Amino acid sequence: MSHPMTDAGDASDIGRRDRVVSGLPGTRWLRRQIDTRPAWFFLSPAIVVLLLLSIFPFIYSFWLSFHQWNLSDRTAGWTFVGFGNYVRILTGDPYFWSAARVTLAFLLVTITLEFLLGLGIATVVSQESRALGAIQTIVVLPMMITPVVVGLIWRFMYNPDHGIINYVLGKVGIAGPAWLGDARTGFWAVVVADVWEWTPFMALILLAAMQSLPREPLEAAVVDGASRWQAYRSIVLPLLRPAIGVALLLRGIDAFKTFDLIYVLTQGGPGTSTQVLSLYTYKWGFKFFELGYAAALAYLMVLAVDLAATFGLRALERRT
């Protein structure tokens, strides 16, 4: 067994030797002989594509948000209005706040249901070790379908005349409503479709976290006479807290920009009962062609997501 002082001396000798070798004239000469121009030549196409596809649109749209520009008028140009679009959104646009309330309600309801259902599924599946692979495949199937297809599937199912949901309700003597045509049921119809699609996301993250938990605390709890519920509440859930935070944060960011599912199902109706911020921004940009106003709406959404993600990450860091 080597002595600690000897190990420290060996480490210092190695570090000193590396500094001496890196400082030799031959090493500096070798570095000067290495030509980095081929590397920049091969990297330049990727850098140019990155600039064109991400950085330039970001700068362009941000500058556009300070202008008024109606694309439907061919003679209209950019009119600089400063923060006028932002002031108009925050103080003079009641539909923006309506869309914000719908978005917040959509986030709270869907994420809560997806988390609870995903946690339940992960808990049950984690105890079925024999058929784990097959169960995981079945559970993940809804998430593998694109949101547009999910919207079409549920739109057919919600059809008041030919949909399977009203057909089943009719068999038990219940008259099914026009699910997507009634403001009282339209919001919940969209929520059910979103929960069906994205609950597997929560379940997979929480299942992976459960499978990585240490067994020693659970075995010690069983030896001490704790019940399954006590061990689950006092040991499993606290250990799952970082994974729960990550799952909620990722799903919240993705749910905040939900567009395609709602567009296919209701297009924001009936009225404004399902009009979320992403759909409201789309309407200003591609139906009313007020591109400056739409850009300002988009950047307010970016700001909201950035603030939520920042506070969420800080909360995770404090708890871990």
Mean pLDDT: 85
Q: Helical element count?
A: 14
Strand arrangement within the widest β-sheet reads: 1-2
| Cα distance spanning the termini | 37 Å
CATH topology of the largest domain, by name, is: MetI-like fold
CATH architecture of the largest domain: Orthogonal Bundle
Count of separate structural domains:
2
Instruction: Report the CATH superfamily of the largest domain.
Output: MetI-like
The share of residues in extended strands comes to: under 5%
Q: Which CATH first-tier class of the largest domain would you pick?
A: Mainly Alpha
> Radius of gyration, rounded?
28 Å
Helix content: over 70%
Q: What string, H for helix and E for strand, traces the elements in order?
A: HHHEEHHHHHHHHHHH
Describe the protein:
- This protein has 320 residues and is mainly α.
- The chain has two domains: 4-80, no CATH class; 91-319, MetI-like fold (Orthogonal Bundle).
- 75% of the residues lie in helices and 1% in strands.
- The chain is built from 14 helices and two strands.
- It has a two-stranded antiparallel sheet with strand order 1-2.
- Helix 5 crosses helix 9, helix 6 (132-144) packs antiparallel against helix 9 and helix 9 (183-211) crosses helix 11.
- The chain is globular.
Could you give the topology of this structure?
Elements: H1 4-22, H2 25-33, H3 37-64, E1 67-68, E2 79-80, H4 84-92, H5 94-126, H6 132-144, H7 147-157, H8 164-171, H9 183-211, H10 216-223, H11 228-256, H12 260-265, H13 277-286, H14 291-319
Antiparallel strand pairs: 1-2
